[in-house]
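Notes for week 9. Today we move from apo structures to complexes. The key idea is that a small molecule is not decoration. When we ask for a structure prediction with zinc ion present, the ligand SMILES becomes part of the input, just like the chain. The input block below holds both the sequence and the ligand string. Read it once before you look at the output, and try to guess where the molecule might sit.
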Amino acid sequence: MTTKHPEHPGGCLCGAVRFVASGEPIGGNHFHCGMCRKDSGSGVSTFFAFPAHAVTWDSKPHEYESSPGKYRGFCPICGSSVTWRKGDDDSFIDFRLGTFDDPSRFKAQKHLWMSTALPSFAGIDPDIEHFD
Ligand SMILES: [Zn+2]
């Protein structure tokens, strides 16, 4: 008998970028940094990381080097922000929570970069860890 790993399909708004992440995520956090705000146009960004080897792509995002060695992936058609990764570390890929077809399956563990969080997020989620 074989154990099937859960599969987490996802993609961008228009469907031009599609992926399937298999197994359980390495972790997931809410990011309150300014670069993620610019990347997404949203006040906070939530990412879940999967091992790169656990991800299969039907079509990959176009990557932009937002800072040296750090790449953010966007759909070349609709512009959805899909991924974040380190160029020198292919052990994991961060996926934006909203790109998963069923994002309700995941629960973030921490709020990060709270020192740069917007005032409206002060005191949010007091039951999980916060880091400046
Ligand atoms: Zn798209």
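The mean pLDDT is 93.
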